[in-house]
Amino acid sequence: MSKNIETGKAGQLFEDFLREQGAYEETAERAIKRVIAFQLAQAMKENSLSKVAMAKRLETSRSQLDRLLDPDNGNVTLATLACAAEVVGRLIKLELV
Question: CA 16, CA 85: separation in Å to the nearest integer?
């Protein structure tokens, strides 16, 4: 067994750990994108919207919609997310904290 185990402070928050590692911002951005992609997919399901119908309403291709719904694809603009949210009857809410 290796004794080179890195230990954190008792009660250390995971956010603090990520900041120490320099990965907080990227991790937070990916998490937000994953949540939004999940919420859009759920809203599509609730509205019985297929990908083809959703793409048509967004005036885009299905492959572009697949990129939008891909939780690992962070190259999506806020404008695109806002349009997609509007199509499914939702709003994007942003706030600075």
Answer: 32
